[in-house]
Prior knowledge:
homodimer, two-stranded antiparallel ribbon, 17 helices, binds potassium ion
Amino acid sequence: MKIGVAIVKKKRNINPSKTLVLGFAILILVGATLLSLPAATENGEGLPFLKALFTATSATCVTGLVVVDTGSTFSLFGELVILSLIQIGGLGFMTFASFVFMLLGKRISLKERLVLKEAINLNDFTGIGILVRRILLFTGVIEFSGALLLAIRFSYDMPIGKAIYYGVFHSISNFNNAGFDLLGGFHSLTSYVDDPVIVLTICALITLGGIGFIVMNDLYEYRKTRKLSLHTKIMLITSISLTLFGTIAIYLLELGNTKTFGPLSPLGQVLGALFQSVTSRTAGANTLPIGDLTHATLLIMMFLMFIGGGSGSTAGGIKVTTFVVLLATVWSQIKGREDIVIFKKRLVKEIVFKAFTVAMCGFAIVAFVTFILSITDTGHHFIMYLFEATSAFGTVGLTMGLTTELSPIGQLLIILTMFAGRLGPLTIGIAITRRRQKETFHRPKGNIMIG
Amino acid sequence: MKIGVAIVKKKRNINPSKTLVLGFAILILVGATLLSLPAATENGEGLPFLKALFTATSATCVTGLVVVDTGSTFSLFGELVILSLIQIGGLGFMTFASFVFMLLGKRISLKERLVLKEAINLNDFTGIGILVRRILLFTGVIEFSGALLLAIRFSYDMPIGKAIYYGVFHSISNFNNAGFDLLGGFHSLTSYVDDPVIVLTICALITLGGIGFIVMNDLYEYRKTRKLSLHTKIMLITSISLTLFGTIAIYLLELGNTKTFGPLSPLGQVLGALFQSVTSRTAGANTLPIGDLTHATLLIMMFLMFIGGGSGSTAGGIKVTTFVVLLATVWSQIKGREDIVIFKKRLVKEIVFKAFTVAMCGFAIVAFVTFILSITDTGHHFIMYLFEATSAFGTVGLTMGLTTELSPIGQLLIILTMFAGRLGPLTIGIAITRRRQKETFHRPKGNIMIG
Lengths: 451, 451
Ligand SMILES: [K+]
Ligand SMILES: [K+]
């Protein structure tokens, strides 16, 4: 803790948002350059730069929207570049966000050490070294276990070497909520829709990656501490609720849909609904054909996609805590309470305003991107624009089929949206926390009529 | 002012929200019963009750969505019932909202009389009598002027008696932002798209009705006071900006659209864009064919429809001030300011939370209604559900053609949405303001990770 504070004091002139944005931009550009090399593609021609840039952005921002089919287009080298971008992008973001949260948390709350300590149970971390080591430990153990299970299952369908490679690739891709796959033909995991091993393993990888380091660490420390932080409690309860809600809703809404549930066994239908519920937040693989889902299911999925996963996780979206703060605020207001209370804890005004700003910017970005897409890429159904914009903002990677049909301007727009969707919420959070300063004088109060 | 306070003290046990909801429900039921009488329709058979209920709700909530064509379905008696519902619903709401705002404004701000006085310039109103008289004066003068201009113009196309009746009907309908018309075939005002007299007169009626009594009164008093309230300044600047933005955007987005702008002269194109911009907030008449507009234009219109007009006006939506407070909050947050400042005035936390709650409930209602419509009324384009839900919530009355095709459950849903859209934002505002009470004890602060 002392070292953390020391670092802030020493490097006060370093802007963490700028570091993050610059780091990601450089990583994406290096990736795009590598992917446009002849060696990166199977046909030896390399990818046009815009498509390479799209793929590199999608991988680094762990989105999974693709303009070319990953498995059949890229050489082993190209696939390893993508896998590296996913791992660096996912892990880097998780580390950075958790670190910044620790530092900024301390910074705004120098007088409130106890609150922060209780909020994230990070009192053991006295510096970035331990934090990074712990994140690497979690990531390593989880990705290894996932790869093992997947490789065993894949070995029934393919040679053992390929099965291991597929196991590693899909474990890393899904723990990082990246949504990339090697199975070909843009079909994602649809051929494994009723396979419990694949479905449940990948659901577990996605969920662990998407819940965030703070929560994983809190659960890991539970043996010692015997208590969970407010953040962890909110994350666990809300994540489970959202997943169950999504599964039940999608199951009920697709029951009569012959195009999706028609060919499936009852088990396959349940697994399919579960998988689409989990993957909407915001992993991006799919086992059901997205373009054939009912409008109602697509709306449920867009709702889940917009919320996304945990702060400081590999998932995107406005984040679960943001959503919960919105809910709590509206509920407190309607009940006429002065304080916004969650789990017997009062949320300070600053957190409410931050959540509100993140959500509003999210709405604005999705609406704006949908608007521009409907101009630059005419001739599609409206819901395809909305779904694509939500998917890109939430770094989800699901598509109704628009991605491969995008015009160059549309591709550029989605590239920017993935970037903004991945870095935006955290950057806004940092900007708000960092720059907030007590006003030297307060303006007189004004009153206006609302509602 | 003293009488106002006295009224609050005496009638503290009366719940204004309940009065409002009950009053509207009774008015709607009476209207529906009258419209289902044989004498109400031209064919002498009366309307089925559900359709009568839909029409009565649409008229009372000044929406304008119709399941039957007003002009060709109803007898003179039926049309006068509709006109009465519009006038009572529109005027009643405007009076009630302005009155409640005065009272509640006083109630929360007993210590802040000066603030409120400056906020709405209502210091001359010592009781509801003067308020009602002034509202009736404004309404009478504006509706009479509108009727006169319209009747003169209509007299070129029809016998003078019919022209006067049409002038009166369309003046009242449009000042109340009701969106009903007698011109037949669900065509609304499309045949007058390039007629400057009709277009500009109706735009003026809509704008005056939708800006709200507080602003009208403030402008009226300007001769004496020589200053405008914060509320009025915000309303004027934002209303003009939104109208200009809508006009320019719609004009540019429809320029290449042969179905809408194709048959029009350059003047007709400008007038058409202006009219659709004005009418989206939330009058509901149309001169361009809504179903043929581009997706981008429809999005712009949904944006305007959701925002709507002024508080305590005949318009619906979340209201202009709510939108401005959202904007100001996000802007202040991103700039790292502690206070939310508009026109050098600081907004108290309560106003921000109220605006935020109204907006979130609005989003939730629109999303929920879109979701249910996509289940109960399958087989349409997704944007038709979204547009219909936004239109009903905003009490706009524009439709892409879904209204007449609605299933009975869909009709019931839209009835409820119009009701919630008309009364919801104000009711939420009242509930929040009334019940807010200082907490007797504050929970300990909690911290969680956002973004
Ligand atoms: K993803
Ligand atoms: K209307």
